[in-house]
Specification:
single chain; alpha+beta; Rossmann fold; Phosphatase 2c, domain 1; six-stranded mixed sheet; six-stranded antiparallel sheet; about 40% helix; disordered N terminus
Length: about 400
């Protein structure tokens, strides 16, 4: 039996053998503009429920005798979110409690009160709707999380591949060029580093070395390091084609790099220290591109910062950089640090941090292993910024 209404809402299934209480339910639900179906057959009811023909069931706990709870369990097992209201009466409280354990939404006590029944139906339908929405939201969230996890794994794989490429672009550490030993250390804050070092021979008597610190981290900054490697390769080829070609000064090379970075329009700039050593003249020619902290020069006589300043590279057009020249002693060491090193030092004041680095290098700790140990970089310590350093010394100074 189906009682239609003019303005149908949800379809309610009533299962009650008591004709009086059934009539009360049909009347109050129809008045509330619900569509109502009545049956006392569990197989008919289960078909209506599983086919989504009805949206709520009101079941008398005695409709199927002792098997009513099994019937309710069959429904909740197939459709955990389907709302069920049971009709109870004095003397079957334990059965009512068992029904709640199966997941029913509400219960009505005989004798039925129409306004209570209508309110219980509305509340049960509202909670069921909310539960369905929560389930859909959770499913969407889980699907989004799965998709996000796949994307994250793809990004991590790309970053790991990029890191391998970036590492292959770096020179061997340690390396020996002429009678100078060079070694470096780079620890990215994430997968990819914005710090980059390179050193190479550009003529029969000269070598170039530099440490660059690109603004930011990640792929965009790492891409600038790829450009730096390309520029290093171009400079080597340029000078190797014609041995009569004079190697340009450090300041000229910074200007050349500045032009190329600006032309690439990568929206990134860098600080850089670049040095050129002439082994025949035993001199160092260097230039600053906004690099900080300043390079540390150490010899048996003194340990000091190399003077100089300059604009960052890749930020302004037409910048002129300043050349500095230094005669090299028989024993010396040049140490370059990125500003990420300053962030991990425990000293509070910048002056104290700089003094610590001077003391560290001045005490003879100018190898990568010694610096790594002194700075506490052993292991997988997470750092707030990319950290890098480069050291150069003549072989005799390390004996």
């Amino acid at each position: 039996m189906v009682i239609p209404t003019a303005n149908q809402k949800a379809h309610i299934l009533v299962m009650d053998q008591d004709s009086e209480s059934e009539e009360i339910l049909v009347s109050c639900l129809a008045e509330a503009e619900y569509q109502v179906s009545c049956t006392d057959q569990t197989d008919v009811a289960l078909k209506k429920i599983t086919s989504a023909e009805v949206q709520l069931a009101i079941i008398d706990l005695d409709i199927a005798g002792a098997e009513t709870l099994d019937f309710i369990a069959a429904i909740t097992k197939k459709l955990p979110a389907f709302p069920i209201i049971v009709i109870s009466h004095p003397g079957i409280e334990d059965k009512t409690l068992d029904a709640f354990k199966l997941g029913i939404a509400e219960y009505l006590m005989k004798p039925l009160r129409p306004h209570v029944a209508a309110l219980s139906v509305r509340n049960a339908l509202d909670r069921a709707q909310l539960r369905r929405e929560n389930i859909k939201y959770r499913e969407k969230l889980e699907a989004a999380n799965r998709e996000l996890q796949v994307r994250l794994e793809e990004i991590q794989a790309d970053q790991q591949a990029g890191r391998l490429v970036q590492q292959k672009m770096l020179p061997n550490s340690p390396s020996t060029l002429f009678n100078y030993r060079l070694e470096h250390y780079i620890r990215p804050a994430n997968y990819l580093a914005g710090d980059f070092v390179d050193y190479h021979q550009v003529s029969e008597s000269k070598l170039v070395f530099y440490l660059a610190d690109v603004t930011g981290h990640g792929a965009a900054s790492a891409f600038v390091t790829v450009l730096m490697k390309q520029l290093s390769t171009r400079s080597r080829k340029h000078y190797s084609k014609d041995h009569r070609h004079e190697v340009k000064s450090a300041a000229w090379m910074l200007g050349w790099i500045n032009e190329n970075v600006l032309e690439a329009e990568l929206d990134r700039h860098m600080t850089i220290f670049l040095g050129v050593i002439d082994k025949d003249k035993n001199t160092l020619n260097y230039s600053y591109g906004g690099h900080f902290p300043q390079a540390i020069f150490s010899s048996p006589e003194e340990t000091c910062f190399l003077d100089g300043r300059g604009f960052p590279v890749g930020l302004f057009e037409g910048v002129e950089y300043e050349d500095h020249y230094l005669e090299l002693p028989d024993k010396f060491c040049i140490s370059l640090f990125s500003d990420g090193v300053l962030e991990i030092l425990p000293q509070k004041d910048l002056a104290d941090k700089e003094a610590y680095l001077l003391d560290l290098i001045g005490s003879g700790n100018n190898s990568v292993d010694a610096i790594v140990k002194a700075l506490g970089l052993v292991g997988n310590k997470q750092c707030p910024d990319d950290i890098s350093f480069l050291t150069l010394h003549n072989e005799s100074s390390n004996e």
